[in-house]
Amino acid sequence: MKVNQFSLIQTDDATRRHELKALHLLMDGDENLSASQLLLALLLRTHLETTSDAGRAAWLKSLLATPTTNAYDWFKEDEQPTDAVFYLLALQLLDFEVAVDFPLEYPLLGIKRSNLPHHYHEEWDQAAVIDSFYLLLLTRTKNGISLLDKLTSQGMLTWTYHLPASQKPIFFNGKPVASFNPHRFIHEVVYVQTDLDTDFDGKADLVKAEVIRPADSNQGLKVPVLFTASPYNQGTNDEWGEKITHDVNVPLTHKDPDADSPAEATFPTPAQHRDIQGVGPASESFAATPSYTLNDYLATRGYAVVYSAGIGTKDSDGLQTCGSPEQTEAMKAVVEWLHGDRVAFSDRTSNQSVVADWSNGHVAMTGRSYLGTLATAVATTGVAGLDAIISEAAISSWYDYYREGGLVVAPGGFQGEDADVLAAETFSRTKSAADYQHIESTNQKYLQQMTAAQDRASGNYNDFWARRNYHPHFSGIKAAVMIVHGLNDTNVKPVHVKALDDYLKAADHPAHLILHQGQHIYINAFASLDFSEMVNLWLADKLWGVKNDADQVLPRVLFEDNRQEDNWQVAQAWDGRMNFTYHVADHQLVKGAATSASPITFNDHQADATYQDWCAHPAKWQTALLNDDGQFSAHFATEVMAGDLVLRGTPQLTVDVATNLDHGLLSAYLVDRGTARRLTKNPVLLGKNAIPLGYQWKYDDLREFKLEKEPSDYHVISYGHLNLQNRHSLAKPDDYQPNQTVTLTLPLQPVYHHLEDGHQLELILFATDYLMTVRGNEKATYTIDPATVELRLPADFA
């Protein structure tokens, strides 16, 4: 396994000694010991599983210092350490196995193979031992945590729990260590008052926020906050969502270019805010709440963690509005309270306010998908106190989530879902029977208006979607940004993150981009990448104010290679430095000029049995498409690649197309053709609860992408869809007449993909996408002019 660590900062000798002393690992007088005895002392101070001399001796005898001598016997000789001795011991401490992960006779080869950080020394004196042991503590184990975190989970730092709050946090290599007792965390609930009235009752909506903070914050220590805005946090209505999911087995229809979309409901300004009747502590608590394991990891390092589901959820007021400015404002209000700029109450009725006087006023928002989306949304407001966001798999425009190119296009795996369905699913006020009884009719009326306003009938961009588009507000972002996204995410597609990253790069805004090969997942429990430590370093800078050069240490762009396991690479930008243009000649994609050729036709209609089968099993449709001989698609491939090419950026297709109906769509796939073992589509579970997040605290599962056991012949790397009537505007469709030839320009999903020597790049043009578009099975014949095909690809040579 290859370990990739990007969170390590350079330190000098004095700093290393100071920080090791702060952890009670280096003691006064230690440097009077020989190098061998100093190393022994450091090892024994990290081994807390026994306090007896016999137990320590047994532990040392279980380790090898050389291929033929155990550590106990080796240390008795008081020989000078060597690179081979130190790193043989190190590999064992890091849980790497002899003969499995490294050859016993060549431990330095194991260090190289696993890409572990190391310092070789010609002379192993006391300074060399301190230098190498310091680095060893920061080195990742085989099981996805640093050695220091492994030792911490075994209780090495429990003595820090009893330190005065004024002596915390303790920093090691620019990051706070786990010195906060999770079993003394304070759990409290507050109700933040907004300036919204989304349930039309004349009163300012309250939103519930659940706070988890260290007990030290009651002893004068002001701590930063991780805020996760999650509409799922108070429960979901999955059955309700299933019942109102829209039918997608319907035909596409002709659009009236002059038709208007229905208007969305507007909300009144609240006529009444609550009068404050005093100030006091929070009066409500909670036992547990759905959490994010990255937050759990950071909580023991001194961060308070806050969760809020926002308006329209259990114990809060208002309605669920799915990405609207009102939802953004509700979550912004929580940040304002944490910064000291807004009122919150200890309960829903007493009007006793609660002040977040334990907060240092510095907030980061975290979370994936809808959670990351709201982090992005709140950041666009420029709200004071929001200093950082970790935006994972986040939507940047809800139109691009539920629509594309003038079409209703589902997020991958959720055919028939729409904004109204998601609003219904997350309207957890249903969990309180009495509350739901009085709000039910108001909510149903709003949902009906939402269903009309989202306008599935046309798929056009309108005011409803404009209110849920964060792109025009990117300029309001003041927070530092860390973006994480899956290059194979078909739920929140890569176009969302590309738009945000493009803006931030052009604006020279502090940002880091991490692109992995997964779908819609978290990456904080991967064996190969020190993501949690990267975040800990970055937030120490942004929220604790530690000058650790995090922005210079962490890569601007970090991407996972699609060809190999455990291979993360650094770049300065997403886009490639070159653009290649392909045309069609003799039914092939070529870099030269197009040649005249007869039009290519295909029919989108299928036999009823096939149609029904593909509707029920869309994966069968995709397999059939990739193997189609031209019946319902057109295929163009390059010659076999002579050399590698890295596709980086947004491919763009231009083509002339016509259909026999008065409406139509064009879809496109970009495919890597070539037999190879590819990475699994989802990370493989390596160990259930294998990652401890603190001492006797919570756990996470260890995961990693692995190469599939069997080779496959292709991989879909990009795709796109466009309504023929929206060829010029997403908001204002053109008319279309049967057999009218029109020129389409279709941007495909952004890519970062290594196309290997011996593979081919294939372009597939078709109409219905059974995984994402409506599926009407119409007798539609499409005609493509191959001479007009132009595919522009941003790329670099490997």
Tell me the overall shape: globular
Number of domains: 3
- Major sheet description: 12 strands, mixed
What is the distance, rounded to the nearest whole angstrom, between the alpha carbons of the first and last residues?
Answer: 23 Å
At CATH level 3, the topology of the largest domain is Rossmann fold
- Helix content bin: 25-40%
CATH architectural name of the largest domain: 3-Layer(aba) Sandwich
CATH class of the largest domain: Alpha Beta
Low-pLDDT segments: none
InterPro entries: AB_hydrolase_fold, Galactose-bd-like_sf, Pept_S15_Xpro, PepX_N_dom, PepX_N_dom_sf, Xaa-Pro-like_dom, Xaa-Pro_dipept_C
Pfam families: Peptidase_S15, PepX_C, PepX_N
Domain Xaa-Pro dipeptidyl-peptidase C-terminal: 536-792
Organism: Limosilactobacillus fermentum (strain NBRC 3956 / LMG 18251)
Q: Any overview of this molecule?
A:
The protein has 3 domains: 13-160, no CATH class; 181-480, Rossmann fold (3-Layer(aba) Sandwich), CATH 3.40.50; 578-678 and 711-797, Galactose-binding domain-like (Jelly Rolls, Sandwich). 25% of the residues lie in helices and 23% in strands. It has a 12-stranded mixed beta sheet, with helices on both faces. Strands 19, 20, 21, 23, 24, 29, 30 and 32 form an 8-stranded antiparallel beta sheet that branches. The longest helix has 22 residues, at 433-454.
